[in-house]
Hints:
A: 888 residues, Aldehyde Dehydrogenase, Chain A, domain 1, Aldehyde Dehydrogenase, Chain A, domain 2, 4 domains, 30 helices, 15% strand, disordered C terminus, B: 86 residues, alpha/beta, 4-stranded parallel sheet
Amino acid sequence: xxxxxxxxxxxxxxxxxxxxxxxxxxxxxxxxxxxxxxxxxxxxxxxxxxxxxxxxxxxxxxxxxxxxxxxxxxxxxxxxxxxxxxxxxxxxxxxxxxxxxxxxxxxxxxxxxxxxxxxxxxxxxxxxxxxxxxxxxxxxxxxxxxxxxxxxxxxxxxxxxxxxxxxxxxxxxxxxxxxxxxxxxxxxxxxxxxxxxxxxxxxxxxxxxxxxxxxxxxxxxxxxxxxxxxxxxxxxxxxxxxxxxxxxxxxxxxxxxxxxxxxxxxxxxxxxxxxxxxxxxxxxxxxxxxxxxxxxxxxxxxxxxxxxxxxxxxxxxxxxxxxxxxxxxxxxxxxxxxxxxxxxxxxxxxxxxxxxxxxxxxxxxxxxxxxxxxxxxxxxxxxxxxxxxxxxxxxxxxxxxxxxxxxxxxxxxxxxxxxxxxxxxxxxxxxxxxxxxxxxxxxxxxxxxxxxxxxxxxxxxxxxxxxxxxxxxxxxxxxxxxxxxxxxxxxxxxxxxxxxxxxxxxxxxxxxxxxxxxxxxxxxxxxxxxxxxxxxxxxxxxxxxxxxxxxxxxxxxxxxxxxxxxxxxxxxxxxxxxxxxxxxxxxxxxxxxxxxxxxxxxxxxxxxxxxxxxxxxxxxxxxxxxxxxxxxxxxxxxxxxxxxxxxxxxxxxxxxxxxxxxxxxxxxxxxxxxxxxxxxxxxxxxxxxxxxxxxxxxxxxxxxxxxxxxxxxxxxxxxxxxxxxxxxxxxxxxxxxxxxxxxxxxxxxxxxxxxxxxxxxxxxxxxxxxxxxxxxxxxxxxxxxxxxxxxxxxxxxxxxxxxxxxxxxxxxxxxxxxxxxxxxxxxxxxxxxxxxxxxxxxxxxxxxxxxxxxxxxxxxxxxxxxxxxxxxxxxxxxxxxxxxxxxx
Amino acid sequence: xxxxxxxxxxxxxxxxxxxxxxxxxxxxxxxxxxxxxxxxxxxxxxxxxxxxxxxxxxxxxxxxxxxxxxxxxxxxxxxxxxxxxx
Lengths: 888, 86
């Protein structure tokens, strides 16, 4: 029996503040210097070098396993020699088996599918505290880890394990040096001293503290201000559930709790046994060599083995045999007694034996239900065992999972011994270790079985990844004159046509009706000619429900088609929450809110556009007006895209001139913005460029000669083609400015776009003040893409700058030809009124999601400038100092 | 003075260099081009060399130092005590 003075496993180790003597400081500095040089030299070693050294050390450790075990028992007077041999073998053989094929030098892992490579960087100098309970095995294990990861270690064994710890270090060091390891890679403090430990913990050249020991050691390590792996005590609850294989469970518990006389901190401390098994369990324990204590004996154990003042186990009992403990406290037991079992009625200070006991004394508790058993296990877990280990014996997977979810333990061992199970590699596939991370519950930085990866700085080489892009469009698009006749090919039992009164009066609904098969029931739902409100949408949904529609035909401009998209959404998924679905997002694939996929109704949406601008017939967007809160809600999802688009110019032949111009410039803006968007792709570029070409050629013709069927047809196609581009590449800052300005001053969208367009082209073509992060583009290309447009349209120019200038000039000429006002001032808005409005306009524009795909990130001050340029038109404008200051 | 190091006898070469520094002028160029790895002993002698150079106010230029060796010299805080040329 050892004395309490000689064993200080769980004593507090305060972080000493005084420095060691001058002589000792010089000694410690020498150790650190030696280790630092070794660590530096070690960085040059290859994987083959370290693997060769590791193998030689492991062989040396295995060869000395028995010798070291004997030394440990002789010096510490703890534990069981035979078990310590096994520990030493696990620390070498099992550790080797785990690390031998693992890469720890240079590239250690590659993830080609993620374009990621992980590389290892050694830590440097590690200061390692070695516990009294496993002194030689812990040294062997840490030496293997350190060499495998090219680190140098200064060991500080527990004062009562100094000789055996130092011998273990010496054996490993000699083997390592013999096979080429850097000189000084391992050193061992010749004597244990708290001041010296503290000095080394704080040393600037010590990169990591690996403290395996009690709470004091862990706390000292973490208090040093250095990165630390502090792994400390536990208090392992065991749930022996009624479905368990009792005999196996009891043998496993005895194996574990008596292994090295219970010195492994993962060993079982309190077994909570279901009522159904309790009596049989105790009988089995007794049959297999456990002594079941009566009430008085339990009180004796509690009184003598647990310190009444601290509530912790008495050090003198740690690692002792059950018979020695019994003899020491005056308890009469059979000579072959392996284990002392003490029934307890609760957990906590009133039940002293419910704490951690690193000796073969096991508390048991009778639980009347699963619920009670789990609660008692939680109590044990919270009584000094947080984050460490918990054990369950059960055949009920639900109970096992519940236990796993309930326990706060880094290792939850199932149907196997706690201590050997937690060590890893024997009973399970846990990583072999001699240091159990206990997570934040145990004041640790990890819940892992500490291993080689904790001895490495793992660097990640992240290559630029070209994310998948997309080009999503409706299933079918029918275009050219009389394309509406294609409606005939879609069988429908019940079709609801959504349109407005003007279109119905113009006879367009009749044209559509003629293309619907006669057997189809058709209902026409007329909605106001304005951006749709929610109440309008809900009325439409009522119609869809009433007629049990299986087909919706949206006949109209953007407002009608948008209304139909939302009606379809609410009809198919009535619980869809518009507010939630309108949540902004940066990346379509990572958006938080997903559109519903479960549908109670299904209807095909056919969109027939009657304007040549928005392209809503092919876009995944819909705008809802919320008059109650005076705002617009934009919905965006490819599920909103109509199934079929009909681009039939017969419906736009009578479009008024102003509308032709406004919608045509909206179309041009879509195409130009999609063309330079950060989401642009070769697919969207092709569409954008074609749309731009068509607009420049046919918009003036359609405007000046509205009955020009070819011009109308081409402009109708252009709007749809531009929409195919911006459906997939989005728009830009022009739309953000136009949305804000148009809403504030009630200016038509196309007209608002026109006021901004030349200025925005110039703005995007210049070197950005702030670049927009864009994984999809290689460098800044907006100016070059504008130049490509100029080339395509034959605008001329010798260089990019000239070409951009010519594009701007051509755009201005087009706007002039279409009779657009060329400045906001021309709209009759006074400078004072505009100046008052600018702050709000800028705020609104900046909140608009449209610019997020703009190639240039607009700064607030730049938005101010753009608004003023638009206000003053062609003349260069000085930004109002007042507003500029507001955004400085 | 230019001295080219031989990796196979790195430590003796470095020690000889230290001695030459005692008797030679104020600038020494040490060619590391043929050296791919240094050990703890070499580090020790390089440190000695740095100390001697500082005492003599001599300039020691290390030429052709492999980046892995340069990293070792950084880790042991010796890099700042020398000049490096390619």
